[in-house]
Design goal:
five-stranded antiparallel sheet, elongated, 208 residues
């Protein structure tokens, strides 16, 4: 697993205008190719009257899946510059669709490349990005008396509580940076006088 990757902070649309052509860049997170394709289909449906709906997406923390489409624009002038902008900004698990409404002025190949790549870059700036970091999932099991204070203590020290399950005891699912595991184990033993159970799980990504 990659130690960390960047993705968009939120989904949204940003509009730019170049020589009277409107370029609407819609960005969305996509956990899989299927999600990316569903988003592309939804934008196409919404803007069925547009001149072009060009798209690009990058899936995987290691950018394993990279695809793009010019949707009728001259080859290499739309989808590829969009994809290159996503990769230049280290974006992962993200899909971009740039909808163009033609304004009557031809932009030429260089103009199209700048317009489509620029639309994605401006949208990323407008919507913001965030870093996701690799973490270890772990469970902490405590008695009901200690559970409320434990949750407060975990959140107060900036640790991510992902889930809380109530049974005979209370099980908290948390996410920890790898480097923090040993220190956390010691802190937990101290905070609960050794009464809490701690179990390491698999790996996932959490907000950095």
């Amino acid at each position: 697993m990659q130690d960390e990757y960047r993705t968009i902070a939120r989904a949204g649309v940003h509009e730019t205008e170049v020589n009277r052509s409107r370029f609407l860049c819609a960005l969305a997170p996509a956990a899989s190719e299927q999600e990316a394709q569903e988003f592309i289909a939804a934008v196409r449906k919404e803007h069925a009257d547009a001149t072009h709906n060009c798209w690009a997406y990058v899936i995987g923390a290691d950018a394993a899946v990279q695809k793009a489409s010019d949707d009728g624009e001259p080859g290499g002038t739309a989808g590829v510059p969009m994809l290159q902008m996503l990769l230049r900004r280290d974006m992962r698990y993200v899909v971009a669709v740039v909808t163009r409404y033609y304004g009557g002025v031809k932009l030429g190949a260089g103009g199209l490349i700048r317009a489509y790549g620029g639309a994605v870059g401006e949208a990323l700036d407008a919507l913001g990005t965030r870093t996701r970091r690799r973490v270890r999932l772990a469970t902490v099991t405590v008695d009901h008396q200690r559970a409320g204070k434990m949750q407060n203590d975990l959140r107060a020290t900036g640790r991510e509580v992902r889930d809380v399950r109530y049974g005979e005891a209370v099980t908290l699912e948390i996410a920890l940076p790898d480097a923090d595991v040993d220190a956390f184990r010691a802190w937990l033993a101290d905070a609960t006088a050794g009464t809490a159970a701690f179990e390491l799980g698999g790996e996932a990504y959490g907000d950095a």
